[in-house]
Automatic annotation (TrEMBL):
It comes from Thermomonospora echinospora. InterPro entries: Pyridox_Oxase-rel (IPR024747), Split_barrel_FMN-bd (IPR012349). This is Pyridoxamine 5'-phosphate oxidase. It comes from the Bacteria.
Amino acid sequence: MPAHVPDLVHPTAPSWPRRRMRRLRAAESLELLGGTPLGRLCLVLYGTPTIRPVNHVVEQGDVLFRTHAGSAVAEAVRAGDLLVAYAADDIDPATRLGWSVVVNGWATPVEDPAEAARHLARIDSWIGDEDGVKDQVIRIRPEVVFGHRVVVEEEDDG
């Protein structure tokens, strides 16, 4: 016979107001994504799902990030037909309110040197790039954009 399992609800757990997920339009989702510098690139490398934190910018609906030309990500993109997901969010741990955006699309290298240089000047590397090795810019052209905002049910206007 299994032992009795005690109630795992903490006696001082706060009483949270009811929340719901409100779907966002693609334009609002991309605007939120463009307002935060760090996200997560999700892709399959060597047959295994992989998630990498990267800095990004959003320009004309595309998500752009930098990596070094010899990275596994850059090599996978150069091999062609790389479908990726890109995610970022801003959820307040105290209120449990915020937003989450996921972009699904094809990743391609930015080949034009002038365009790549312009983006490199705008995208900081979250781990630093003093030696300038993160010189490859990758573009994600969204096919699907999923965005949700977590709201208090009473504040949800539809």
